[in-house]
Amino acid sequence: KCYFVGQKLINEAVGPSGRGKEEFRYQEEGGEEKKTPLYEEHLKLGAKFVSFAGYKMPLSYTSIGEEHRAVRETAGLFDVAHMGILEISGEDAASFLDAVTTNYIRWIKQGESQYAHILDPDGRILDDVMIYCRGGDRYMMVANAVNEKKIWTWLSAVNSGKYLIDRDYPEKEVEGKAHLRDLKDTSSGKDQKVDLALQGPNSLAILKKLTEEKEAKGKLARIRPGEFIETKLAGVEMLISRTGYTGEDVGYEIYLHPEDAPLIWKLLLKEGKEFGVRPAGLGARDSTRIEAGLPLYGHELAGRYDIGSMGAGYGLFVKLHKPYFIGKKRFLEREAERKMEIVRFKMKVRGVRAVKFGDPVVAAKGRYIGHVTSCALVEGIQLGLAYVDRSYVKEGTKIRIFVLPREGKVPPERAKDELILGDKVLLPEEALVLSRFPMPEILSANVERREEK
Fold first, then answer.
1. Which terminal residue of the chain has fewer beta carbons within 10 Å of its beta carbon, N or C?
2. What are the start and end residues of each CATH 2.40.30.110 domain in the chain?
3. CA 363/CA 388 separation, integer angstroms
4. Cβ-Cβ contacts under 8 Å for 6 (sequence gap 6 or more)
C-alpha cells in the first residue's frame, strides 16, 4: 500500500526491504514524422504546416489572427489528434490514478473530468493531463503529444512494481494493478480514439446541427464545464466533453475513432458555415491559450526553468490533503524554496519586435527578475507569460523586457563609460503585469462543481 497510519515507525524499525527497484529513465526516441488522420483535409484547405511533437501539424489556414478571432467570436475547429489518449481500468484504477496524479480522482464520477499533474519521485512535473471517468473502474487520460510515449512508459513502469516511486520508502508500490491501454494504437481496435476540438461561442449550435433528435440536442445543451457525454452524432459514436485549451466558456472536445475523424471534421465545417466556423491551427491554439493564461508543458510547466505546479499558478490541482501521491514530499520541499511565479503580461505599445521564450525580464528600475516563457500577438498587441520574482506578480506592476535578437547572439556592447558616438545599446521594452487568469471561472469550474456537491 502507498500509505497507512504508522508507516514511518514501521519503516524505521524494520528498514527498507531493498528489493533492488530500478530507477526510471526515459530516452526520447526519434523516428519518422507522423501525420494525423486529417492530414489530407488540411492539404485541401491550404494549410501551412509546422513540425510539432513528432507530427506534421497545421499552423494556420488563413492567418493566426483571423483564426484566433473566430474562436473568440464564432467558432474554431482544431485537429488535436496528435494528443496522447490512454485508458486506465480495473478495480484498482482509481487507487492507481490517485497515486500517480496530484488531484483527487475519487472526486469525479461517471461523466466528469479532472485536470491533474503527474510528478516523478523528485516532485518534478512529467506532464499535465486531463482524466475522464467513463465508469467506476474505467478512466481515459489525455496527455500532451510531446509526452505521449513518456507517460505511457512511466505509467507502465509504476504499474509493474519494478521501479522506484518513493526515495524514502524504496519498497513502496501502488495498490493493486491497473489495466493500461493506448487508445491511439491500432491494437485498441474499435475503441481507438483521436481528438478534435470545437471552441467558441457558436460551438453548441454547430454540434446540434449534427443531429435531428430533440433528446440528443438536449443532452448536448446540458453538458456543463468539465462534463462529458458518450453519444452518437451523424451516425458516429463519440465522447463529447465540454473542455478545451482556449479559455472559452463554450468549447468542446470530440473523441472518436480515427476512421470517423475526416467525416466529422467535414460535417462540422459544412454545418458550421452559417455560424462562422473556421478551421484553426496550432498558431491560434497557442495564442488563445496564452491570452487565457493556460500553461504549455516545457514553457510554463517543467522545461528550462523547471517550473512546478504552484509556480505555474496551478496549486489548485495539487491536493495536499491526500496522504500520498508520487513526488509529494519532494514537491513540498521544492515549494518551500520557490521564489518565482508565472505572470501574464501585455506589452505597452504596438509594433515591438516579437517577444520570445527566454527573453530577460527586469523590474522598472532595471533589476533582473526572470524570463519570458510564451508570447503571442493578439489583436495587434503582444500578450505573454513570464516566470518572475514573486515580488513582481501583482496586477498593474510595470516590468520591462529585453527583446533579444532572434539569431541567438546578443551583439557585444561597450561599458557604459566607454561608449562612443554611434554605439547602439539594447534597451528593454515596457510591459504591464495583468491578472493571472482573465477567465477565472474556467479554471475553477471543476472545483466549484465539487463544492456544490
1. C
2. 339-453
3. 10
4. none
Which residues share a beta bridge with 297?
301
Cα–Cα nearest to 91, from 218, 178, 173:
178
- Number of C-alpha atoms within 13 angstroms, CB side, residue 445? 20
Q: Where in the chain is the domain with CATH 3.30.1360.120?
A: 1-338
- Region of 321 (left: φ > 0; alpha: ψ -120 to 50; beta: rest) is alpha
Give one DSSP letter per residue of 50-78, joined into a string: EEETTEEEEEESS-HHHHHHHHHHSEEEE
Question: Which residues are within 8 A (CB) of 42 and not within 5 positions of it... i.e. 6 or more apart?
Answer: 49, 58, 61, 79, 279
Count other Cβ atoms within 10 Å, centred on residue 165.
24
253 is in an annotated binding site: yes
Q: Tens-of-pLDDT digits for all 453 residues of the chain?
A: 676 676 666 666 666 555 678 999 998 887 899 999 999 999 999 999 999 999 999 999 999 999 999 999 999 999 999 999 999 999 999 999 999 999 999 999 999 999 999 999 999 999 999 999 999 899 999 999 999 999 999 999 999 999 999 999 898 999 889 999 999 999 999 999 999 999 999 999 999 999 999 999 999 999 999 999 999 999 999 999 999 999 999 999 999 999 999 999 999 999 999 999 999 999 999 999 999 999 999 999 999 999 999 999 999 999 999 999 999 999 999 999 999 999 999 999 999 999 999 999 999 999 999 999 999 999 999 999 999 999 999 999 999 999 998 876 777 889 989 999 999 889 999 999 999 998 544 444 434 333 344
DSSP alpha helices (H): ranges in 233-303?
Answer: 261-271, 282-291
Are 197 and 252 contacting, i.e. CB atoms less than 8 angstroms apart?
yes
Whole-number Å distance between alpha carbons of 195 and 82: 8
CATH class of 1-338: alpha beta
Can you say whether the dihedral through the CA atoms of 178, 113, 84, 241 is positive or negative?
positive
CATH no. for 339-453: 2.40.30.110
Name the residue type at position 63: S
